[in-house]
Specification:
Blueprint (H helix, E strand, L loop, with lengths): L3 E9 L4 H15 L3 E8 L7 E9 L11 E6 L2 H7 L3 E10 L13 E4 L1 H7 L6 H13 L4 H9 L7 H21 L1
Parallel strand pairs: 1-4, 4-5, 5-6
Antiparallel strand pairs: 1-3, 2-3
Length: about 180
């Protein structure tokens, strides 16, 4: 990982975007022992409105916590893709829910797609699509360790949802392995 790493997660209210950012920041700081800063924004309509979360991770002190152009963009809505796809660094990577983001040119080099919503529905819980995305992102990038993400998930979701969320995370990691096997 380079000295500073920035991650933007975007979608709409109700998809667990803010929770995803919280999990990433917590995993980086508490379990991988790096510094992280977490910011969030969402429209006044809350559920269904535009929503984003940003996490900055640094080995050293974080001097500026806001993200202009992200190193990594994770998108769970077409609107989020349209708003932020041009706000990624030149060497940055984009991860899209291919079920919800049409128009993204998935090439498995700079833009990665995963049918997160469909995979979540096959698990019986559409709401875990965000965690599937986190598993996919973690396995592809290695920015945060899988162990740190698992611990963060265990301590960030309600006790009754830990098992399904851990299965969703594993499902995202497994999907990344199939993508990597195609290269």
């Amino acid at each position: 990982m380079k000295q500073r790493c920035s991650i933007r997660i975007s979608g709409f209210g109700g998809q667990g975007i803010v929770l995803s950012g919280y999990i990433v920041g917590k995993a980086a700081s508490l379990h991988d022992k790096k510094n992280s800063a977490f910011t969030q924004s969402y429209g006044p309509e809350a559920r269904g409105g535009a929503c984003s979360a940003c996490v900055v991770i640094e080995e050293g002190k974080i001097s500026y916590p806001l993200v202009k152009n992200a190193d990594f963009l994770i998108v769970l809505s077409k609107e989020g893709y349209e708003k932020y796809s041009d706000k990624v660094t030149a060497e940055g990577l984009t991860f899209v829910d291919s079920d919800l983001v049409s128009g993204a040119l998935v090439d498995n080099q700079k833009v990665f797609g995963i049918p997160a919503t469909r995979l979540a529905e096959s698990m019986g819980k559409k709401i875990v699509a965000n965690i599937i995305m986190l598993g996919f992102f973690t396995a592809v990038t290695g920015v945060i360790s899988k162990e740190a993400m698992i611990e963060s998930i265990k301590t960030s979701v309600k006790k009754s949802f830990i098992d399904i969320n851990l299965k969703a995370f594993a499902r995202g990691c497994e999907h990344a392995a199939t993508i990597r096997g195609q290269e």
